[in-house]
Design a protein that fits this description.
heterodimer; A: about 170 residues; Four Helix Bundle (Hemerythrin (Met), subunit A); elongated; B: mainly alpha; Cytochrome C Oxidase, Chain A; two-stranded antiparallel sheet; 20 helices; 4 strands; about 0% strand
């Protein structure tokens, strides 16, 4: 799992490199229509961060043997993750540009699309782990699937912080 | 406490029943036996070598005389692109994976790789991605922009057919195989070594593959990103590389070479490792400077990430960047120099025996040094400007890759095939094989340096008469023909040996490492008992000159130990010291890897032809296959303390 995450993290590094490289090569403003609005993205970032915290709380529960805390943690994480995905969908539809309009648009939709796909995979993992959690599969000693799905979810979260910082914040200072 | 036994008393029938793949079609398709997978890798990759060689042969026929019209320029473009892609991606790395898959568990006293089903997935995706790529010639639309596929020629505006879609999708598909394979090697090396086989006692080959696998994990995503961009730009009207829409053709070059240069080390470091393990056996002494060679292997892999711009000196990158990358390109010669010095010192201070694997190892050193020197000179920016995109570069890449990869692979085939087939190859044919390949490679590729300095550009389907290029090109074609006959001699030798070759026995070369303690071929369970290793050369203990026999004798316990016959079990140990052995249950044969690979193939074909129903089928199949794969083992639950169970076996 750790190495899978490592290679996935590199995928984001190269995606963000492409964004920064093309940004540095532009003659006009970058993004062409001015910096992206933070009105949806900033609260959405907070929601995703919160979901990771909730997951940790649930995982701490099973380490002490509390099935309830694990189940509530997983459920809340799923709900927050789903809200993030929905807001991200609204964010996509509210943009004035498309993936075909220029290089910035292509990069924006490709990078956030890659990240969105990771969110969906993370939610699917969460759903599977949740089924087991509600069936009482996990104990204080045996809950490796919870740990692994959690590692993946935290990775999706951290990757978003870098995507957010690069796509939304960095053009404001460059 | 686990049951202890000696090899002769071990319940081998029970172990055989546990580990043997049942015969029949289902068993063949579902097997996770690393030896079967390794053999399939070797055979498939060798077939790709022959196909890539055939493509080269047609090109050489076309270039034998000036103004020849055997093939059209478009066909020639497709030939050199397919030749490069086949050799670089579907031969050079997979053949090394074949050796690693077959040999690693035998070298480390294990009964399988860390993730056996991932291993099967890795093979099936390799095979199916190769079939995917070779669908293209039947449509007459093979990739036609070289193996590094520069923009803008790769873009839809200039290249409207499916050609470059095959390139983008084929490499993304193969990337899945390469990535999961690399993760499997890393996991195996960290967890699966038998007790006592600490990091300082590993065969150098394993350091080579470890270094290559780390390079794959960190560098391959760059190619995946580049190919994804390429496909989106070609088929969905997006813009990444087209300058008129704010893209940059240079973005492709950066992404490709960020991947591409580490990839060069992916296809050479394991091969250098194999030679580092073969030379001591035929020099009758341990490797000189083991730590330096292992360390330089890792160092080469690391510095390999900081040299990519030397492929782009002629593109107008800033002088400061060129200076830095030129410096790193000189620097990377140092670890290679250390390795060469260690090999020569080993031969020099040993008592060399010139069997065929040793001949190929010596040929490897000579060809590698020539290719290395032509590499060092092109690290100098002004020199590179003169020879960039000329046949000098073609000569360099072929000296390096034929030298370090093909010669090492030939040495390894002669060395380890007796372990795999149980029979020795003919030494007589082996000598013919070696000398034809050695003479052929030099007659073929040395004159290419001259052709390049005279100004002959690569990737042009013909050349005019009367500019001094006739002789060098005729020589290259003759050399290529001799080289090809050398390869055919090997094929004959192999086919002869599996029927008539002398029986090899467990250790035909009197070598020192664990794989030579098993029968040839090894039984399905590899080791009747799990050995305990106490030195770097367990089979030479007490024999090494200059060390007191008593100091080394009996450090290892190779023929008695735990049996582990409660289902499929092998031993895992701690990452560095290989201490604290813990028995580990391993997964059995499974159909899901093949089903998953087929689902990914369906997705790729669907994307290629724009058949969205097929993409849907592929994605649905992928989800079903992953669910089927993960469901039962995960439900069974695994102990938290066990490091190996991280990830989906």
């Amino acid at each position: 799992m750790v190495w899978t995450i490592a290679t996935e993290a590199c995928l984001f590094v190269y995606l963000l490199f492409s964004f920064v490289y093309l940004g540095a090569q532009q003659r006009g403003p970058w993004p062409p229509q001015g910096p992206l609005s933070l009105s949806l993205a900033l609260p959405n970032t907070a929601i995703l961060l919160l979901s990771s915290g909730v997951y940790m709380w649930g995982e701490r529960g099973i380490r002490r043997g509390s099935q309830t805390q694990l189940r509530v943690g997983l459920l809340l994480t799923f709900a927050l993750g789903a809200v993030f995905a929905v807001i991200q969908g609204i964010e996509w539809h509210s943009q004035s540009f498309t993936a075909q309009s220029d290089a910035f648009g292509s990069l924006f939709f490709t990078i956030t699309g890659f990240h969105g796909a990771h969110v969906i995979v993370g939610l699917l993992l969460n759903a599977v782990v949740q089924i087991w959690a509600w069936r009482g599969t996990f104990t204080a000693d045996r809950h490796l699937a919870v740990t692994n799905a959690g590692l993946y979810w935290h990775f999706v979260d951290i990757a978003w912080l870098f995507v957010f910082a690069t796509l939304y914040l960095s053009p404001r200072w460059m | 406490m686990e049951m202890q036994s000696t090899v002769s008393d071990a319940p081998t029938e029970t172990l055989r029943r546990i580990w043997e793949t049942p015969s029949g079609i289902y068993g063949q398709l579902a097997t996770v036996d690393h030896k079967t997978i390794g053999k399939r890798y070797l055979v498939t990759a060798f077939l790709f070598l022959l196909i890539g060689g055939l493509e080269a042969g047609i090109m050489r026929a076309q270039l034998t005389r000036p103004g020849e019209h055997l093939v059209t320029p478009e066909v020639y473009n497709q030939l050199f692109s397919m030749h490069g892609m086949t050799m670089m991606f579907w031969y050079a790395s997979p053949i090394l994976s074949g050796f690693s898959n077959y040999l690693w568990p035998l070298m480390i006293g294990a009964r399988d790789m860390a993730y056996p089903r991932v291993n099967a997935l890795s093979y099936w995706t390799f095979l199916l991605s190769g079939i995917f790529l070779y669908t293209s010639p039947f449509l007459g639309q093979s990739p036609n922009d070289g193996w590094f596929a520069y923009a803008p020629y790769s873009l839809g505006l200039y290249n409207a057919g499916l050609n470059m879609d095959f390139y983008a999708l084929g490499l993304i598909f193969l990337g899945i195989s390469t990535t999961v394979g690399a993760i499997n090697f890393i996991g195996t090396l960290i967890n699966m070594r038998c007790p006592g086989l600490s990091m300082s006692r590993l065969p150098v080959f394993m350091y080579g593959t470890l270094s290559a696998s780390l390079s794959i994990v960190f560098a391959l995503p760059a190619l995946t990103v580049a190919c994804t961009f390429l496909f989106l730009e070609r088929r969905f009207g997006m813009h990444f590389f087209a300058v008129e829409h704010g893209g940059s053709a240079m973005l492709w070059q950066h992404l490709f070479w960020m991947f591409g240069h580490p990839w060069v080390y992916v296809v050479v470091l394991p091969a250098m490792g194999m030679v580092s393990d073969i030379i001591p056996v035929f020099s009758r002494r341990p490797l000189v400077g083991y730590g330096f060679v292992a360390g330089s292997t890792i160092a080469t892999g690391v510095i390999g990430f900081a040299v990519w711009i030397h492929h782009m000196f002629a593109t107008g990158v800033p002088m400061m960047a060129m200076t830095v990358f030129s410096g790193f390109s000189f620097l990377i010669a140092i670890p290679s120099g250390i390795a060469v010095s260690a090999w020569i010192a080993t031969i020099w201070t040993g008592r060399p025996v010139f069997k065929t694997p040793m001949l190929f190892s010596l040929g490897f050193i000579v060809v590698f040094v020539i290719g290395g020197v032509s590499g060092v000179v092109t690290a100098a920016v002004p020199y590179d400007w003169q020879v960039s995109d000329s046949y000098f570069i073609v000569a360099h890449i072929h000296y390096v890759l034929v030298g370090i990869n093909v010669f090492a692979v030939m040495a390894a085939l002669y060395f380890w095939l007796p372990k795999i087939t149980g029979r020795l190859l003919s030494e007589r044919l082996g000598r013919w094989n070696f000398w034809m390949m050695f003479v052929g490679v030099n007659i073929a590729f040395f004159p290419m340096h001259v052709a390049g300095i005279l100004g002959m550009a690569r990737r042009v389907y013909t050349y005019p008469a009367g500019v001094g290029l006739e002789t060098v090109n005729l020589a290259t074609t003759v050399g290529a023909a001799i080289f090809a006959v050398g390869i055919l001699v090997f094929v004959v030798n192999f086919l002869w040996s599996i029927r008539r070759g002398a029986l090899a026995g467990p250790n035909p070369w009197d070598a020192a490492t664990l794989e030579w303690t098993t029968s040839s071929p090894p039984p399905p369970y590899n080791f009747a008992v799990i050995p305990t290793v106490g030195s770097r050369d367990p089979l030479w203990e007490g024999r090494v000159i200059g060390e007191a026999p008593s100091a080394l004798a009996l450090r290892s316990t190779l023929f008695s130990g735990p049996v582990l016959d409660h289902g499929r079990q092998t031993m895992t140990t701690s990452a560095i010291d290989a201490a604290q052995p813990v028995p580990q249950s391993m997964p059995a044969d499974s159909p899901w890897p093949l089903i998953l690979a087929l689902a990914i193939a369906a997705t790729c074909y669907g994307l290629l032809f724009g058949a969205w129903w097929l993409v849907g089928v592929g994605i649905a199949g992928t989800i079903v296959a992953l669910a089927g794969w993960l469901w039962p083992t995960a439900l069974a639950g695994t102990p938290q303390s066990d490091p190996v169970t991280v990830g989906a076996r």
